[in-house]
Hints:
Layout: H1 5-11, H2 17-33, E1 38-40, E2 43-46, H3 53-62, H4 65-75, E3 89-92, H5 109-124, E4 149-150, H6 153-163, H7 172-181, E5 183-185, E6 199-203, H8 210-224, E7 229-232, H9 240-254, H10 271-275, E8 283-286, H11 288-298, E9 309-312, H12 319-329, E10 339-343, H13 346-355, H14 357-363, E11 367-369, H15 374-377, E12 386-389, H16 392-402, E13 405-408, H17 411-420
GO molecular function, one term: lyase activity
Protein name: Phosphomevalonate dehydratase large subunit-like domain-containing protein
Organism: Halalkalibacter okhensis
Amino acid sequence: MRLTEHEQAMLDGKEGPAKQKAMDLLVRYGEALGAERLVDTNNVSSSVSASSPVMREFAAKHGGGFDAIFSEFNLDSAETVKIPKIETHACQLIQAVDPDHWQTQGISRERYELNKESEEYSGSIGIQLLSTCTPYQVGNVPVKGEICAWMESSAVVYINSVLGARTNCEGKESTGAAMLTGKIPYWGYHIDENRLGTDLVEVEIEMETMEDWGLLGYYIGEMIGDRVPVINGIKGTPDHNMLKHFGAAASSSGGIEMYHMPGITADASTVEEAFGNNKPKTVIKYGKAERQQAYELLNHSAKDKEVDFIMLGCPHASLEQLWDICKLLDGRKINGNTDVWIFTPRALRQVADRSGYTKIIQDAGAKLMSDTCPAIGQILPEGTKVVATDSAKQAHYLPAIMGIQTWFGSLEDCINAAITGKWREY
Length: 426
């Protein structure tokens, strides 16, 4: 790997041990990837949270507090080094605890206190505590062509595709090193030719609802894996919530980090431009039969119609989505045997409070939460056996992570289940 004079100086330890550890990690990482150089970044989205007792035990054993945790889990260093203030703009992604609803979520006081201390530490070194899987909804909106170092699959596919920023799906180690150095290996979706389309998807049915977009994304991910689909045949213009759900579904079922909808997403105006010199590896048709196949895949774990828990807001809900929920809940009451948790970024929850949305949700018997989700936090109401959600991502992960039955459907389906306590298929 070719290093600049400044990069070599950091690797040689001339800017302190933390940056030396970070540069060592980035060089090893880049060489493993086949990257020839590093590239500058000033936009890092990472996870520096330490909300598990295991991490507390690790820190106590090594006598270094949160510096020990950062050294081990963000710099791949068994040696604890003092972590300085970070060099880049960086934000904290979704965490495992909502500090305002930790008791409702069944979180222990020890875990709550650890999360609080972790937030204080992260803020002290310069990390912005957005604590969401959708930083682009609350201020971190990279521009077309901007080199980023982001974790979180649904966020990566959104900024690569919808915004035209450039990032690979990074990990805690590479993003931890990036925020200390302002560097990341130059590879993958940073490079023009790797962003070109690989497979063509011809959509033959109308895409009208959020459910439609989740099912399309899930099917494409299943069929294409981690390549770059070009989606043709979309009539009209989907809003940002639809694209958010589409990308989250595609990245869950197949690991997609980049896609094109010519004339809609950032990188290409036409199918020809999306492919460049590439020829489609496959041409996939998506119609009614394929939609039904995706629906059955997402509902494969569900058998019982009695629903204990409704989960909404994955990826974290926007204000528009919160208002849609409010319109369906206003003046109604949640079934006494069913819990409803709705997740949104903390910054948007504050707007929801001021706008009266939170009151509508609470009056109906539901709860508005932030900072986490059931899959990341591994949190459910006690006794939950059957979940309903409008999120293809949660429907994909919850059966495996939490061992529960999960129904997937529309927002209207989920609210009806919340009111009646029963899932009704259409």
